[in-house]
């Protein structure tokens, strides 16, 4: 466990969150310490027992290890794992099989996998693996998904500043999973709004990870109930937890890319309760 750091975040309800000031809101929902060199970072949340983290191997390989809250011998004894590389070329070795991941490539790792090791091809341009994990009841096969192999959706429009390309990577129809879902959304130049119109999905929680935010730019992430929203200003390589009762939408001072990850009782990507833009408060 010498190379692993973790923390626990407990669930918060809307009645409590309405009283939070800026610091309390950021302390509870913002994940600001990802992508540390030669370290695996984990945040264990009590929203569907979802975990979010990162692994950045530079001087050495990094081995996935169980953390104490899991009460398991191996990390994936009762879990599945998704990884998307947002850095230089790298690889993940799963029980003796090596999977190469380029920039924006993904890997789904199934339950009961024993030995998972993260590597970078070049220490001067290290891989940066963004990680999500959810409880699993069945061992589905490990599978890699390149950006080109993902299911691609073109959404939004330049006129409403939300023209974007959605890449469904670890999702039903692309990869068979228990409940973990992950994908990536690229905002086109001139567009800044993601996931607008906003929505909630009470049947699953979500986490956003923002990257490709230009230097000296930022993203304002919106959360909260439809009729009482809050905002969190975010920097590059930061993530934010979105409870099931909360909208999750953002607007940047430039275009950017974000990775969305979800877990819950429903694998239907379109299962959401959309809010009209004019209803947001």
UniProtKB/TrEMBL annotation:
It holds the Pfam family KduI. GO terms for molecular function: 4-deoxy-L-threo-5-hexosulose-uronate ketol-isomerase activity; zinc ion binding. It catalyses: 5-dehydro-4-deoxy-D-glucuronate = 3-deoxy-D-glycero-2,5-hexodiulosonate. Pathway: Glycan metabolism; pectin degradation; 2-dehydro-3-deoxy-D-gluconate from pectin: step 4/5. Binds 1 zinc ion per subunit. Its cofactor is Zn(2+). Keywords: Isomerase, Metal-binding, Zinc. Its EC number is 5.3.1.17. It comes from the Bacteria. GO terms for biological process: D-galacturonate catabolic process; D-glucuronate catabolic process; pectin catabolic process. Zn(2+) binds at residues 199, 201, 206, 248. Belongs to the KduI family. Catalyzes the isomerization of 5-dehydro-4-deoxy-D-glucuronate to 3-deoxy-D-glycero-2,5-hexodiulosonate. This is 4-deoxy-L-threo-5-hexosulose-uronate ketol-isomerase. The gene is kduI.
